[in-house]
Each structure stands twice: as structure tokens, then as C-alpha cells.
Design goal:
This protein has about 300 residues and is of the alpha/beta class. The strands form two sheets. Strands 3-4-5-6-7 form a five-stranded mixed sheet, with helices on both faces. It has a two-stranded parallel ribbon with strand order 1-2. Helix 10 crosses helix 11.
Length: about 300
Amino acid sequence: MAFCIVFARSGLDVRLYDPAEERRHAVKPEVRARLDDLAEFGLLDEPAEVVLARITVFEHLPDAVRDVVLVQECAPERVDLKRELFAQIDVHAPAAAVLASSSSALTTSSFAGALPRRARCLVAHPGNPPYLIPVIEIVPAPFTDDTTIARATALYEAAGMSTVRVTGEIEGFIFNRLQGAVLREAYCLVRDGVASVADIDRVIRDGVGLRWSVTGPFETVDLNTRGGIASHAQKMGPAYERMGASRGQRDPWTPDLVARVAGERRAALSLDDWDARVKWRDRRLMALIRDRRSAVE
């Protein structure tokens, strides 16, 4: 349902298939409710009924994928189910169509490797819900054709998504590996009696997450330390190494790795512009805090 909103809101006709009859009947009312919410917050450029009219619900999968340019599979995270679905889609979808899975951790090779036309398959993993969190990870398999990657990227960006290319198949991709690292530590902190669930949520929501919504983890520490990320790594690297070691993880920030990360940051932001960027960050946080305070609960 969520991807229906993404694509229909961008002006595309959408075909939805679900094997469950009750879900097929529920789609239009649920989508309309989300569209009304988006309209209330000024996030629709057209009336909700115009967007809703672009969505057609189908009872049979072959009818849904006929004459499409992109198939977005959103089935549960089960490799057997995805193999079965992709085998059907590969037969019935047009030869030029991109076949994408919303898989959160399973790689394309695990469910599409045996398909005759596997070169048009990849993972396109979104944040949830994608109509509010626009980042989407493009994760090709070794056998995915470069043309497929380019076409998928163009389609998602035309629909307002922010694409990230993941170079290599790795379980969990980027999104869930980063999220998983935070969740693992959060569970450990609860287990060890360091903090409550509510307090850990508060630290992320009102602290780390607040900053990360403006600047990601690398830019955050780059702007937190005068001299940039190289200075931060020198000052804080040993402490972070000890923290990791306490959990059995030994991944030191080696000089070569720090130099690589610092090089990318300096290419993005000269230290001559560091003060201006810090001011920009602070003003963005001010605007965000203002909006949070005025938000209707």
C-alpha cells in the first residue's frame, strides 16, 4: 500500500496485487486515509481523489504486472515466498520491466539467482513508510545488468525518492545494518541495567536522532569537533574502540580508514567553510525544534 502512494502521488498509474481478498478490499480506504493526512500537512500537490484514481487493484498477479515498467514486490521476508513470486513475475512481466524487491535483508541472489531473466532483478529497500521517508537503497546482484540499475534509479528518483547505491550484496544492506547496530546496543543497555527502554528512546529521539535528522553520523562528528573528523577520530577513536571491544567487536578506526573518511568529508566541506556549516546546522536544528514544539499531537 505504501508504495502505491509513492508512485501515484508522483503521477504514475499503479497496479496493486494482493492474494488476500480482505486486503484488496481494504487498500483504497486505507490509501485514501493516508492521502487525506498528507493533504492536511501540505504534502500533496493534487486532490486526494485524483491520486487515488491512479491506483487499480487486481485479483490476479499476471494481470497486475502486464505492461508495467517496474514491479515492486513487498511480500513478507521469506526467501521461499520471494522465489515463488519472482518466478511468476519473471514469466508475466514485460521483458524490459525492472523487477525490484522491498527485501529488508534478503539479497537478490538468494531468491532470483535461478531466473531466466535475472539480469533485470534487484533489491530496492525503502525506509518505512516510503511516502514519508524517501531514501531507498538500490542493491543489485552480481548478475544485475547496469541498464537495470540505471532505469530503476531513474524511476525512483522521478517518483521523489532519494536513491543510494549499495555496491555489493550484504545482508541488511546499509539501512538495517546501521539500525541494527543501534538496536543491538540498546538491547544490551537494557539487559545490563544501564537504562530503561523509555530513557534509551529519549536519548535517540531528543539527542542523537535529532542531530542525525539534519546531519548524518559522519557529518555530525565532523561538525562537533574543530578540525573536523580527523580531529574527532584522534580524540575519540580510542574510546569508541574500547566500547566496541567491550561488546566483542574489534573494528579499530585505522589511520588509512580515518584518512579515507576524512578525505570524503573534506571533499564535501572545506575546513574554511566549517564555521558556516556549523551555523547552518544550528539553524536547521532550531527550525526543527520549533516545528516539533508546534506540532499537533
